[in-house]
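Input structure tokens:
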């Protein structure tokens, strides 16, 4: 049986991580892996998470299964955090998932159940695992223009023209905030125009909200998602707790499915429960319980929000510092886009050859398409990166 297996292409980011670990040079800098790091290079456990875990440990009396679709209190708390006052509970089904990736995978599965002829529209570029999953599942996809390599901003006219070709029942995958890998985001006016296109075409939005709180703030980062949910009859939203709660290894996420008519909600909820049962039976609970505990306690929630804001502002400071360093070195404003991008990532616009040169000459690792993780920097490494970028001729 197994001798007929074919070798699989390695994940480029995981391969880059292995190459970084094998590099023996002092002062090497990892800007490849998509994980938040503090100025010391550590991915810390947030204060509220530690407190919540201690509380859970002290009060938990059983490790029996929770509900098939996840703990109801967790689903309620997360739904409120994502959608706030636009949440229509009569029209929204929810599923606790194995991280944000699990939510995306189940969203693809659910959409295909609803439309066997499904086509998914994805931004060019997008998170590589979006495309990897679609290819593995055999779901057709088309790319829509998104990133302008000249301005390093959004090619919104191209995006609108491409999305206008979507058909009724197609799925349009949108990044809710902090676009991965570019860092270039839609304005609220542009979100409204996307909602107009969805209305005209009858396509269904799938919003990947992996970084709420990492861009312009917890509420502002959900504004585009909420606008779409308030206007689209059908919508899918996949949210992750990995980044904003810092619980990467707990694999905690949620899939929200908004239906056009309240009479369809039970159908959607039943389909989601079925998909969960076929995939992992009952969902993991520890990470969900942490999130629920924090969101239900006013003091813990306030402390979590304060620390999340510290993380967000720290990344913005690094963006400003890097843009300023590059402006001083080049006498030009061509890198000011770095300060305008949001989230952990920016795409520099460097060629693969320039990225390779930066790695070979300076032990600075970033993905080949020149996506760099801003959170992998600190105040001491920013000048080193800026010089390396200029020396490589970016």
């Amino acid at each position: 049986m197994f001798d007929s297996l074919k070798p699989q292409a390695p994940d480029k980011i995981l391969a880059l991580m292995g190459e970084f670990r094998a590099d023996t040079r002092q002062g090497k800098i990892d800007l490849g892996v998509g994980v938040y790091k503090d100025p010391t290079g550590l991915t810390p456990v947030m204060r509220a998470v530690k407190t919540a875990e201690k509380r859970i440990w002290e009060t938990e009396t059983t490790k029996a299964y929770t509900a098939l679709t996840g703990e109801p209190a967790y689903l309620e708390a997360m739904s409120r955090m994502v959608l706030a006052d636009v949440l229509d509970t009569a029209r929204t089904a929810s599923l606790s998932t194995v991280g944000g990736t699990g939510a995306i995978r189940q969203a693809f599965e659910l959409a295909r159940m609803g439309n066997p002829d499904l086509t998914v529209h994805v931004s060019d570029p997008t998170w590589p695992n979006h495309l990897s999953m679609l290819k593995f599942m055999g779901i057709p996809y088309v790319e829509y223009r998104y990133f302008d390599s000249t301005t390093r901003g959004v090619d919104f006219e191209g995006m609108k023209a491409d999305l206008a070709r979507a058909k009724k029942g197609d799925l349009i995958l949108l990044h809710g905030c902090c676009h991965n890998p570019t860092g270039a985001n839609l304005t609220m006016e542009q979100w409204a125009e996307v909602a107009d296109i969805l209305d005209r075409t009858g396509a269904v939005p799938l919003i990947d909200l992996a970084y709420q709180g990492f861009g312009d703030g917890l509420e502002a980062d959900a504004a585009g998602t909420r606008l779409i949910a308030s206007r689209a009859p059908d919508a899918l939203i996949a949210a992750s707790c990995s980044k904003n709660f810092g619980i990467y290894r707990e694999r905690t996420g949620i899939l929200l499915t908004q239906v056009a008519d309240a009479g369809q909600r039970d159908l959607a909820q039943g389909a989601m429960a079925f998909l969960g049962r076929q995939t992992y039976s009952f969902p993991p609970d520890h990470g969900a319980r942490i999130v629920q505990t924090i969101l239900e306690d006013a003091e813990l929630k306030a402390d979590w929000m304060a620390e999340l804001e510290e993380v967000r502002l720290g990344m913005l400071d690094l963006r400003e510092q890097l843009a300023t360093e590059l402006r001083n070195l080049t006498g030009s404003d061509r890198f000011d886009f770095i300060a305008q991008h949001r989230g952990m990532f920016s795409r520099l616009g460097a060629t693969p050859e320039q990225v390779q040169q930066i790695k070979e000459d300076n032990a600075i690792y970033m993905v080949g398409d020149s996506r760099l993780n801003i959170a992998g920097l600190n105040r001491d490494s920013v000048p080193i990166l800026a010089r390396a970028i200029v020396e490589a001729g970016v």
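The chain has a mean pLDDT of 96. The longest strand covers residues 92-98.
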